[in-house]
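It is worth pausing here to work through a concrete case rather than discussing structure prediction in the abstract. The textbook approach is simple: state the sequence, then state the predicted structure, then interpret. We follow exactly that order.
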Amino acid sequence: MMIWLRKNLFRSVGDSLVTVIAGSLSLYVLFRIVRFVAVTGRWQVVETNLALLVNGAWPTDEIGRLSATIVLLGFLGGVASAVAGLVTSDVDSEPPTLFQKALDLAIRLWPLALIVGLVLLLSTTTGPLLLTVGVVGAVTVGRLLGGLLPGRVRPVVIVVALFGALASIWFMSFGHSWDDWGGILVNFFLAAISISLCFPIGVILALGRRSEFPILRMLSTVFIELFRGVPLIALLLMAKNTLGFFVPQEFTPGAAVRAIVVFVLFTSAYVAEIVRGGLQSVPKGQIEAARANGLTPIPTTFRIVLPQALRNVIPALVGQFISLFKDTTLAGVALGFLDLLEGGQAITQQAEFRGQGLVIETLAFVGLLFWAGSYTMSRESQRLESKLGVGSR
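Step two, the predicted structure:
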C-alpha cells in the first residue's frame, strides 16, 4: 500500500502538493455534501410531494392501473433481458453461480436500488413497498421463463416483448391521457417511446445516405442535415405554437404526441450519423468477401455489415440515448408538461414552502433521479460492450 501511494501520489514534491490540496478539497466537499444530506437539508418538501415528483397528478382511483402496468413492464423486461442475455452470451463459458449473479446485479443496479430505497424511506404509505415487491417478483419470474424458451423463438420473443411494452403504455392512456402525465413517469415515457422509434428510423436513414440511388441518398441527407441543424428547443416550440397554422384543430395531436414526434425526428438524425460512421468503419474486405461467396447487397448489408457497424458504435448510441433522456425536460419547458424538473420547481411555490429557499433540495433530488437513470444506462452499455468484445480483436 505504501509503495502504491509513493509511486502514484507522492512521487515528487509537486505531486505531493497536488495530492494534499486535491485531497483536502475532496474531503471538504464530501463533508459539505454529507452535512447537507443528513443535517441541514430540509427534505420535507420532497417527502410531502413525493407522489407528485414520481407520477405527477395521477388520479388516486387509477393508481391500480399504473401499478399493474409497471409490474407487467417488469415481467416483459425480465423475459427480454433473459432472452437477450442467452442470445449474446458465450456458450463456451461456465454458467455463473448464484452468488456471482447477485454480485453482478448489485454492481449493475445499485443506483436504481438507491433510488428505490430513498423513495421507500420518504414514503408514508405501503403502496410503494408492495409495488417494489411486485416488480422484483415479476422480473424474477420473467427471467426464469425467458431462460426456458427454445433458441429459435428468442429473437421473436424480444420483438413481442417490445410491442407488449408499447401496448401496455397505450393501455395506461385509457384511464389518464398522456398529456396529463407528470413527474419522472413522463420523462421515462417520452424517452422510452422515442428511443424505441428513433433507432430503426436512424438506421434506415444511415443506409439511405449510403445508398447508390441518388434520390434516396439526397432525401436522407436533406432530412439528416435539416434536423441536425435546428436546436431541439426550437423544434419543440414550433410543435407547440406553429402546428395549428397547418393542421386543423380537430386533427392536431396532443402535446405528448408532438413531443414524441419531435424527439424521434431530431434524435433519429443523430443516430443516422452515428450509424453511418459505424458503417464506414467496417473494412471493405468484408463486403468483397460476402460478394465472393455469392451474397446479394441486401443480405450483405443486414448479415455482414450492419451487425458489425452497430457493434462498433454502441458507446456513441447509448450516449445519444442518455442525452435524449435528459432532453425530455425540455418538453416540460416548451409544451407545458409537469415533468420531474418542472414539478420540482413548482412545489417550492406551494403556500407552505414558498419563500423558504428550498430549490436546492428539490433540484438535488431531481438531479439524483436523472443521474441514476443515466448512470445505469451507461453501465449497461459497458456491460454489453464487454460481452460483444467492442474495442478488442
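Step three, interpretation. Residues 41 and 120 are 18 Å apart (CA to CA). The chain has 18 helices and one strand.
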